[in-house]
């Protein structure tokens, strides 16, 4: 039984990611596969189990014809469906901004996404917390444009977008720069 007087849940996400992507560039279909890392943060409501998550990822791989590919970016996901029987399955939607680098071109992709996730509770690595392990499926629908020299803090979603303290991480990921180092609180 899960019992709590607090209603706000803080979420930290880390993991690996494998992507299969089909995108149209200059009216030509391009298929690619990439793998890499992902991390993010979120907040949830323990009463409704609804969540908002901000997830970053950085992946590398190849196109179907053997060219190198680097796909990185961020998604803002709002979970609006929950399976209360398992407490760990859900679905939702949101917005995204990605950068796709190929040897000869670089593009920005922005749009909306739909996602489903599943998993199960496991013994936590950190005492006093809950831990879920699982996976998810994301479907992206967006527009592709040539990448400008540097991307700034103009994002394609509404409702306050990204938390102010996470925006530097998103910009560093999009611009392929080292992530900012967080200072320890004294």
Account of the protein in words:
- With 186 residues, the protein is mainly β.
- The chain has one domain.
- Helices cover 4% and strands 60% of the residues.
- The protein has one helix and seven strands, in the order E-E-E-E-E-E-E-H.
- It has a seven-stranded antiparallel sheet with strand order 1-2-3-4-5-6-7, covered by helices on one side.
- A hairpin with a 5-residue loop joins strand 4 and strand 5.
- It is globular, with a radius of gyration of 17 Å.
- The model has no long low-confidence stretch (mean pLDDT 83).
Instruction: Give the strand tally.
Output: 7
* Widest β-sheet, arrangement of strands: 1-2-3-4-5-6-7
What is the global morphology?
A: globular
Order of helices and strands: EEEEEEEH
Which residues sit in consecutive blocks of at least 5 with pLDDT less than 50?
Answer: none
- pLDDT average, as an integer? 83
Mind describing the biggest β-sheet? Answer: 7 strands, antiparallel
Q: So how many helices?
A: 1
User: What percent of the residues sit in helical stretches (DSSP H or I)?
Assistant: under 10%
State the end-to-end distance. Answer: 36 Å
Decide which structural class fits the backbone. Answer: mainly beta
Question: Rg, please?
Answer: 17 Å
For the record, the count of structural domains works out to: 1
Proportion of residues in extended strands: over 45%
């Amino acid at each position: 039984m899960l019992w709590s007087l607090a209603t706000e849940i803080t979420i930290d996400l880390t993991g690996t990611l494998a992507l299969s992507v089909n995108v149209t560039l200059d009216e030509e279909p391009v298929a690619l596969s990439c793998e890499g890392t992902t991390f993010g943060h979120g907040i949830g409501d323990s009463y409704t189990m609804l969540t908002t998550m901000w997830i970053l990822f950085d992946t590398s791989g190849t196109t179907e014809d053997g060219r190198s590919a680097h796909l990185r970016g961020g998604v803002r996901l709002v979970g609006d469906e929950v399976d209360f029987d398992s407490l760990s399955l859900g679905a939702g939607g949101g917005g995204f901004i990605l950068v796709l680098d190929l040897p000869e071109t670089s593009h920005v992709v922005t749009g909306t996404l739909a996602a489903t996730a599943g998993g199960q509770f496991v013994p936590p690595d950190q005492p006093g917390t809950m831990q879920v392990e699982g996976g998810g499926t994301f479907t992206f629908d967006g527009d592709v444009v040539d990448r400008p020299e540097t991307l700034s803090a103009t994002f394609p979603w509404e409702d306050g977008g990204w938390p102010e303290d996470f925006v530097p991480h998103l910009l560093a990921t999009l611009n392929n720069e080292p992530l900012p180092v967080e200072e320890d609180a004294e």
